[in-house]
Amino acid sequence: MSAAEKRTRTVQGRVIGNKADKTITVEVERRVKHPVYGKYIKRTSKIHAHDEVNSAGMGDTVLVAESRPISKTKTWTLVEILETAPQI
Questions:
Q1: Which residues form the signal peptide (predicted)?
Q2: pLDDT by residue (tens digit) across 52-70?
Q3: What is the pTM (predicted TM-score) of this model?
């Protein structure tokens, strides 16, 4: 791993869509503290990531890294599949 790869931002999320060719939709969940009440709240973001070989499936837990813009909405790339979802 080079020095440039270590500085890129990576996030972990769950694949919620893989219908498009070489693209996955990942739902990233984060916890933020409420400014007044102090309770932690879950917030989610949907990001599109580049999956070159269409390896990620629905429900998989994946690690994605920020990259140069690949298309209008795709600025993330798939780094690795951390956990595969059970097939039904």
A1: none
A2: 999 999 999 999 999 999 9
A3: 0.85
